[in-house]
Target: GNAT family N-acetyltransferase
Amino acid sequence: MGRPKAGIAAPVPSIRAATPADLPAINRVIALARDSWDLPERVRRLAGRLHELGPTSFDSYEVIVAEDPEGTVRGVAVMLLRPPVLDDGGPGNTALYLEGLFVEPERGRRGIGSLLLRQVEARAREAGLSRIDLRARREAIGFFRKSGFRPLGPDDARHAMTKTLPA
Model:
């Protein structure tokens, strides 16, 4: 399908909470994203099993989807309310943990990831949280930095990042 022609704006996707009925579409987007990663094939297969969602995933995770006007899921964000990656020792300190942000590769760089991320931030604020933590793939670090995230440590090989949300 490719990118829209110059001068023609792509329709803005809508964001909504996912349901178990969305699982096939969610896992399709995750698989497409995973298959585009620069990983050895064996690691890519293992990563697929780690990221795939099932019916019980909704017991632990909050999942939102970005869908086009035809109702096709084009992006997914998976989040978890839990202790943060970086524990600064504050009493009752929790952060929203962004477990995964996936967009169909052919729809990358069209604002879908940013739209999902803004909704994740809104969810964190709604839950009374002031921070989002995540672990980024090496290729996604630039995206998250542009979105206000910073590395948790100077040489963190796991690419742990955090963003403090404005009050």
Summary: The CA atoms of residues 75 and 112 lie 7 Å apart. The first strand starts at residue 14 and ends at 17.
